[in-house]
Amino acid sequence: MTALARFLFGRRARLRWIHLILGGALAMPYVLVGSVVVGPVAGDADVFRSLSLQLASFALGLPLAAVTSLFPLTRPLESGVVRWLCGVAADGLAYGPARTKGEKGRTAAWFTLHLGTGGIIAGMSLAVPPFAVALIVLPFVPALRDDGRGLPGVLHHAWALALAPVAGAAMLVALAGCAAGCGALLARWAPALLGPSPGDRVAAAEARAADLAVRNRLARELHDSVGHALSAVTLQASAARRVLDTDPEFAREALAAIEDTTRRTVGELDAVLGVLRDGDAPGTAPAPTLAADLDGLLRRTRAGGLRVTSTVATDPEGLPPLVSREAYRIVQEGLSNALRHAGGQVTVALRVDMLDDHLRITVENPLRADGPHGRDGESGDTRRPGGGHGLRGIADRARLLGGAAEAGTVEGIWRLHVRLPLKGNA
Fold it and tell me: Which domain of life is it from (predicted)?
């Protein structure tokens, strides 16, 4: 019983009733245009004195409504109203203008259905309540019975008079039932008539995929740039603190490396955050590449106390810009991984060379004796909260360029090996 009352008189039913009343209001101009045609044809200057002529005008106006529904803003406006008043899910509706013949046909069908159903319910809402209220109060207001105007003869019987309030209440419930039923049907049919076409769904999926790709790219950039900088600065500051009294020269080099690292990272962070700010242009800091900053990256890494040997058997200047940029980030993350997990106790070997039109990047370091194998295939300990994303980012970068990345332990040596094609799918 409660569910029935909620269906007939609940908040959702009331909002859908308003939606139908709006449809009736929109139908009135078309009815007036129809009356201009029906009146002369029927020979009656005032068509609103006859219910049949009113219905004829209404029927003639609906095709006109279907034609005007081709206005580009019809579907967006109707979708917005349906979403808020009928409770239809936002992703089940299309908010752009109807472009194809199928979309225009469905929009015309919906607009005609909305105005036609709304016109009927609006007319019932105007006519039924006064009559129903009159029936409810009829036994208690003798003046309504004694004037003899407009009352059917049956209502002068005592039994009919006693049932009049029941009939009046039943008419109001029936009106609510008709409105709730029509509102529920329109809400059910709205996604089919106002919903996105297959082309709209493909476009939305492509937009979501593009947005996700941008988010993933920004996440990788932040992880590799800021993560490396924090790891490097932490070790550089720690190394400077340990040898401040015994080796001031090394401490000065570490502090200079900290200054250089933070300055570069702030520029890169500004460039990434500029993409996230709505309406702002991306920052102007250039994306680092192997050609531009490999030596600086190695110098700053060594300033933190990590022993790094490097072998570069190719000319970074000859690499395509995209490959050079992604390779820089891969080398940066490989060294960051060693900084976090190997520290200064081991020597990290970096090799960059060419083979079969592929750029090869190899980072190797012995595993620490005091730490277990790391999470997600990373070397060293597992105590760093939130770790394990670096290798995934390296694999994503390699895959997006059509290459491949491998990481794992071979005979006590942690080894990261990446192959990036110079020509291929990027």
Answer: Bacteria
